[in-house]
Amino acid sequence: MNASSSAKRKTAVVVMGVAGCGKSTVGQMLARRLGWPFAEADNFHSAANVAKMASGTPLTDDDRRPWLESLRQWIDDTPGDSVMTCSALRRSYRDILRGAQANVRFLHLSGTEASIGARMAARADHYMPASLLASQIATLESLESDEDGVVIEINGRPEEIVASAIKVLGLREAEAKQSS
């Protein structure tokens, strides 16, 4: 083992799951509690990808590749630990993110199709239509035993989900909490 690989690498927690599972809410709250920078993967999509999804057309692997590569680059460019959201539905997508110069860990938010569908129907400020949920569920590949990550059911309040994630991932909250 050389000196660079034995040094502590930064950690990036990727909050993953299908659309509507609460990635943005949980990711922002987790980043705030840890005192880490946060990135919303939806903001990295090209205009063409957003238009395609808004029209109800699922993205292809070719559509996703540049987006995933830009997310990996954000992890590399961010000094220190970080939290980001990303659907990361397939193992191959997670492999791209794991290519970052960081210990990339996954927090998979999981729920029933009915509960997530109800969440999606209730939100008005997102381009992803509820009609794409079935496509996302069909595409989703569960974390495998050799992937660094955990699955948490989304049947609790966001605060409970974040507290559970911090515990099961063995993370430490920021010393000085910001009041907001």
Could you name the key traits of this structure?
single chain, 180 residues, alpha/beta, Rossmann fold, five-stranded parallel sheet, 8 helices, globular
Q: Helical percent range?
A: 40-55%
Q: Largest sheet at a glance?
A: 5 strands, parallel
Strand order of the largest sheet: 2-3-1-4-5
| CA-based shape | globular
What is the domain total for the residues?
A: 1
The tally of strands reads 5
The CATH architecture is: 3-Layer(aba) Sandwich
Specify Rg, calculated over alpha carbons.
Answer: 16 Å
SS summary, helix count: 8
Broad structural category: alpha/beta
**Fourth CATH level, the homologous superfamily:** P-loop containing nucleotide triphosphate hydrolases
Per CATH, what is the topology? Rossmann fold
Strand content: 5-15%
- Report the oligomer: single chain
Overall CATH class: Alpha Beta
Low-pLDDT sequence parts: 1-7
- Give me the strand/helix succession: HEHEHHEHEHHEH
Structure description:
By secondary structure, the chain is α/β, with parallel strands linked by helices. The protein has one domain: 3-Layer(aba) Sandwich (Rossmann fold). It contains 8 helices and 5 strands, in the order H-E-H-E-H-H-E-H-E-H-H-E-H. The N terminus is likely disordered.
List the helices and strands and how they pair.
Layout: H1 3-6, E1 11-16, H2 23-34, E2 38-40, H3 47-54, H4 61-77, E3 82-85, H5 91-98, E4 103-110, H6 113-122, H7 133-139, E5 149-153, H8 158-168
Parallel strand pairs: 1-3, 1-4, 2-3, 4-5
Helix pairs in contact: 2-8, 4-5
Please sum up the structure shown.
Helices cover 43% and strands 14% of the residues.
